[in-house]
Fold this sequence. Notes:
- It contains 18 helices and 22 strands.
- It is of the alpha+beta class.
- Homodimer.
Amino acid sequence: MMQSRTHTCGELRLGDAGKQVKIVGWLENVREVGAELAFAVIRDFYGTTQVVAQSAEMVKELHAINKESTISVKGTVRERSSKNPKLPTGEIEVVPEKIEILGRCRYNELPFQINHSRQADEAVRLKYRYLDLRNPEVKKNIILRCQVVAALRKAMTDHGFLEITTPILTASSPEGARDYLVPARNHPGKFYALPQAPQQFKQLLMTSGFDRYFQIAPCFRDEDARADRSPGEFYQLDMEMAFATQDDVFAVLEDVLPPIFAEYGLYNRASSAPFVRIPYTEAMEKYGSDKPDLRIDLQVQDVTAVLGGCGFEPFADGLVKAVVVSGFQETRKFIDKTLAAVETQSGNKAYWFRLDESGELVGGISKFVAPIREQVVSALGLKAGDFVALSAGKRDAALKTAGVLVKTLGAAVPGHMDKEQYAFCWIVDFPMYEIGDESGELEFCHNPFSMPSGGLDVLLKAEAGEIDPLAITADQYDLVCNGVELSSGAVRNHDPEIMIKAFELVRLGEDDVKAKFPAMYNAFCYGAPPHAGIAPGVDRMVMLLAGEDSIREIIPFPMNKNAQDVMMGAPSEVSEKQLQELHIALVKAEE
């Protein structure tokens, strides 16, 4: 006996015919065939079972129950005369002796059909998420998430990592995004912050003598939603290793992830170790992106020297990048639609021409290219039938547009994308510094706690003007899968002297470092081991495994794009008494 049932709705088979059983679940559907015959479908977490009522009394009883009510059915299993081979329980049905309502659905109309909830408006789905989750197609993503998290935990434990939880209420820290702040009732005017990541805590664990740490860590960032990022909160497989190098981190993830992706993913192929390593600069030049999708065989070529002076005005100033697509047989309508989509995504216009079967340049900007046909054909290695897409402008704009061209054309033109696999790569050697868009001054490019390649020596040379600070790279890396950034990581800067010098280059002194990161700075002064880590996003990982385009499909109770929980009504107003206890006064925003 299991709770109030003998079997689940996905359990009964032909061998159970003749048994007295009791099943419970939601009344999914009732189909009446006259006054004395009706077929009902009962659904629970495990599956569905058909119930057949064969008396006027039982039919009337089923008719009176609203769909999605929870019921108990006690009856006898028998072989179905009309079997359904698509269902595990499709060879049997239950003839009821007693039907009991356990939880009545008090509404005659539902916001959407449960089994078709994915076709409903997203706002309605999120408001009634508890109904949306009854859909087996929606539920399976949450089950997948549970399985993947369990597999990750086992794999990390098998690799000698300890799962250690770190604080949720902590101090505000400048880590790149806005903090969620929590007022401290007993400390008027002061606030906790929800952690953007356990970054400082996991590094402090390394200084405390723990060798290998991990956790499935909740992270909180007040930032806008994207298709691959949930607003408000997300989860990551956070890990850190003491006395470790970049290669040590790579070896762990290259051992942990491929089996999980192969077992649980939509595709059963995943990159094996070692993953391809691509320097950041090379990734930008070859793929127009630091998140390349290696399932696509298209690459970016620089044709500035050949086409910069062809007389086409957009090519006259800046760089010209080309993406050559072989075997191109698409229509002009396809070309126009695709390039319009590229312009929308990149914010920059793209251009094109073709080499037809006779070897002539046709279409797009071909009249500007025709006078230098031989040089262009030679430079790009063109063959009859090749299509050439082009971008132009300043370096960042030209590369960004070329990167969108690679992804868009690679996915749309047959023969250029080996889709059914998980292709991993490491992006390495990121720049340590950049010129800020707003400040116009030197700033950290990514993580300020990354170890600069070359250590203190390279920072001193930059300070002395012997090398350009923009040429300094960091021992920092990204893990990319199918064009999605799963994670950033780094070898950490564990030496206070190197840390101070790295911050001095961006006009922050020792006092600033001590003030902003007091615990970590002081801990490092007591002897810290070299350490390195990474934190692949669990949500993005499961999204890839499930083959979903939106991250909200794999989160049990997601917020909408405006960081609102429309089901619970969050964020919400609070009482004046609560505000007073927290020493908070609301100021009306200016209109």
